[in-house]
Amino acid sequence: MSDEIGGLNAIEPLVDSAHLDLPVVDCDGMGRAFPELQMTGPCIYGCPVCPSCLVDDKGKRAVTLQADSPKHLENHFRQTLGGMGFAAGLVMAPLTKHDILKSCVLYSMSRAWRLGNCVLYARSQKTSPVQALLDLNNGKLLCLGKISDVHRRTEGGFNPGVITIEGVGEYFGHTVQINFQNEYLIARKVCTTPSADTEILACTPDLICMVDSDTGQPIQSEEVRYGLRVTVFGLPSVPLLCTPQALPVVGPRAFNYDIDFRPLGQYVELGPIGPK
Question: Would the pLDDT of 162 be above 70?
Answer without folding.
Answer: yes
